[in-house]
Amino acid sequence: MEKKKFHMKANSDINENKVNLILDLRKNGINDPEILRVIEEIDRSYFVDSHLYDKSNLNTALPIDCGQTISQPLIVALMTQHLEVKNNMRVLEVGTGSGYQTLVLSKIAKFVYTIERYKTLHQKAKELLKIIKAKNIFFRHGDGGLGWIEQAPFDRIIVTACAFEIPNYLIDQLNEDGIMIVPVGEIHEEQVLKKVKKYKGKVFVENLEKVRFVPLIEGIEKK
Ligand code: SAH
Known about the structure:
By secondary structure, the protein is of the alpha/beta class. Helices cover 32% and strands 26% of the residues. It has 6 helices and 9 strands, in the order ααββαβαβαββαβββ. The strands form 2 sheets. Strands 5-4-3-6-7-8-9 form a 7-stranded mixed β-sheet. The chain has a two-stranded antiparallel ribbon with strand order 1-2. It binds S-adenosyl-L-homocysteine (SAH).
């Protein structure tokens, strides 16, 4: 009985956190109703270890396996909003991590192609999203900085780790009229979220905001 009461209290706290999270996103410029709906609908607790369950609806980044992080929901929402995804688009995501951003994108785009350099994270996200029955996601264990040449070009590209400079391979794999969102900068130094647009064969870059991401690292990890 006591245990049940505790769970009910814990659940009501979690739901309250979700309401606060959505309010927080709105306050911080997320006004796309589809993105707000998708974030409200997805249970972020699936993507973190059980001891972090009660923190899963807070607007913070949280640790995941392999020393990586699940991004802050506001950052996921901001990047998705800047990406201007439509339901007929194919999106490449570099840095699957927990798979949370992947699932958000899959509910808006036609297909999502996601690459992760850690085998553990790649497999975990793939299994989880299979259980959740997300059917329009393709997973690859590889170096996402090289893109996914067999599936290119993409309408949209999102990089969820910080690059030293805008990766040329990814620009090459962006469609005409394509948009890429990528954090650029040095680790532990200033990082800026950039919006890269391809228009009439030319590349235009806009600085969005200061951010903090784990680094984009070359090569793969076999574990
Ligand atoms: N969107 C993810 C963010 C995970 S953190 C989430 O919310 O869970 C960034 C991820 O990028 C990490 O899992 C890291 O291992 C991965 N990563 C870094 N460099 C990479 C590369 N070159 N190719 C593929 N994945 C990379």
